[in-house]
């Protein structure tokens, strides 16, 4: 990155290059990737090029979030940072390596605007404001809004910790992780509406635009980018009336393109689990299905075989990264996944309705929280809590 030693760096300049993720590191902080262009030491300033991990204290990040810090507007502007993709900063930092990675804890700093040219910086700023406004809308929906926020934007700071932990302990973490399920749901709704309006070609185009919007809004997590690549290839395949690619071939192409564009994703858990689980489903699911009893309904057998295949394919990675596996997730998915799909459908339409008819937000919130109650109780049951 630079000739300056990491432990000598006291200040850095650059921009945020990933969504902030709240965690327990260093007390309570938000982790994000940060693309560096300049570093400062006691010996002077140096040009730099590369990415580091940054840990922002929660007070700096949550100053603008609803229900987090009860400060005056003036203090929020003075003390808070709007930390989203593209936000440009000059930051005072302390070196704090994490598992062999170059990382820093932010002490203080100042915002420098938004990276890129005039148009790009405005787009980044607009996205940040959209995500902030979405947080405010979801905050008004209570606990259900916290879960829906996690499912649609990847932000989990309003999700109940007990429920979030239960998703993990019951082997259902993939439901909270932004992935092909969320992208496919969003795109399918747009495609249905587009085809109703004007046929196949327009329907496919509307679906792709909806997918692009969702990826832009939610951010490029490894699993979401993999799903986006697959959707883009399938769209081009349909546009040119080509034969549909074999699933394993499609996944392989996505993998190769992915590692070329984002080589750093290879070391992330979401990348490894996303590709291994899909590979397991494509290769092993058919064999698992054969040993399922014939009296079990086909759709149930399909779900069981897919879940079992994914569990087998990801077990080694889960043991290495997390020290455990959760086979109960095979059964839990049968009950929780359909409810989460319903929750997402109602939530998406509820958001649209609330934007045009705000007075309906309250009854929609009540419906969402009732459904959330069923989901949370089920997840807690399967996590044995």
Structure commentary:
The model is unreliable at 69-78 (pLDDT under 50). Helix 5 (161-169) crosses helix 13 and helix 8 crosses helix 9. The protein has 385 residues and is α+β, with helices and mostly antiparallel strands. It contains 13 helices and six strands. The longest helix is centred in the middle third of the chain and has 39 residues, at 180-218. The radius of gyration is 22 Å and the shape is globular. It has a five-stranded mixed barrel with strand order 1-3-4-6-5.
Which whole number gives the mean pLDDT? 83
The quaternary organization reads as single chain
Shape: globular
- Return residue spans where pLDDT drops below 50 for at least 5 consecutive residues: 69-78
- The first-to-last residue Cα distance is 46 Å
- Report the sheet-strand fraction: 5-15%
Radius of gyration: 22 Å
Count of helical regions: 13
Helix-strand string: EEEEHHEEHHHHHHHHHHH
**Category by helix and strand content:** alpha+beta
Please report the total strand number as a whole number.
6
Query: How much helix, percentage-wise, in residues?
Result: 55-70%
- Main sheet: strand order: 1-3-4-6-5
Largest sheet: 5 strands, mixed, barrel
Short synopsis of the structure:
The chain contains 13 helices and 6 strands. The protein is α+β, with helices and mostly antiparallel strands and 385 residues long.
Topology:
Blueprint: E1 11-16, E2 21-23, E3 29-41, E4 44-57, H1 58-62, H2 73-79, E5 87-95, E6 103-114, H3 118-139, H4 142-153, H5 161-169, H6 173-176, H7 180-218, H8 222-239, H9 247-261, H10 269-290, H11 298-322, H12 329-356, H13 361-382
Parallel strand pairs: 4-6
Antiparallel strand pairs: 1-3, 1-5, 2-3, 3-4, 5-6
Helix pairs in contact: 3-4, 4-13, 5-13, 7-8, 8-9, 9-10, 10-11, 11-12, 12-13
């Amino acid at each position: 990155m630079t000739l300056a030693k990491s432990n000598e760096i006291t200040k850095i300049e650059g921009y945020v290059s990933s969504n902030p993720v709240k965690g327990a590191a260093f007390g309570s902080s938000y982790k994000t990737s940060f693309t560096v262009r300049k570093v400062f030491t006691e010996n002077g300033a140096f040009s730099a090029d590369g990415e580091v991990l940054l840990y922002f204290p929660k007070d700096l990040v949550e100053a603008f979030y609803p229900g987090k810090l009860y400060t005056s507007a003036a203090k929020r502007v003075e003390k808070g940072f709007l930390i989203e993709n593209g936000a440009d900063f000059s930051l005072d930092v302390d070196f704090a390596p994490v598992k062999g990675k170059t990382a820093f804890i932010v002490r203080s700093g100042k915002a420098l605007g938004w990276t890129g040219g005039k148009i790009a910086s405005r787009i980044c700023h607009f996205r940040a404001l959209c995500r902030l406004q979405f947080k405010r809308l979801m905050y008004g929906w209570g606990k259900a809004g916290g879960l829906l926020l996690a499912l649609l934007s990847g932000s989990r700071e309003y999700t109940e910790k007990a429920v979030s932990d239960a998703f993990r302990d019951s082997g259902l973490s993939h439901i909270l992780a932004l992935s092909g399920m969320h992208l496919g749901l969003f795109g399918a709704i747009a495609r249905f509406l587009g085809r109703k309006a004007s046929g196949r070609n327009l329907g496919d185009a509307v679906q792709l635009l909806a997918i692009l919007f969702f990826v832009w809004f939610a951010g490029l997590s490894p699993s979401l980018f993999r799903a986006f690549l697959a959707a883009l290839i399938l769209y081009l395949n349909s546009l040119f009336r080509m034969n549909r690619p074999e699933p394993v071939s499609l996944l392989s192409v996505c993998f190769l393109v992915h590692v070329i564009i984002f080589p750093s994703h290879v070391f992330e858990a979401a990348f490894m689990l996303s590709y291994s689980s899909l590979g397991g489903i494509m290769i092993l699911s058919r064999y698992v299905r054969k040993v399922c009893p014939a009296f079990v309904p086909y759709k149930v057998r399909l779900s069981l075989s897919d879940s079992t295949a994914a569990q087998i394919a990801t077990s080694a990675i889960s043991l290495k990264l997390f020290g455990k596996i959760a086979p109960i997730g095979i059964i839990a998915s049968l009950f929780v996944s359909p409810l989460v799909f319903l929750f997402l459908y109602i939530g998406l339409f509820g958001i649209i309705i609330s934007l045009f008819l705000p007075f309906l937000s309250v009854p929609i919130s009540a419906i969402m929280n009732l459904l959330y109650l069923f989901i949370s109780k089920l997840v807690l049951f399967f996590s044995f809590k």
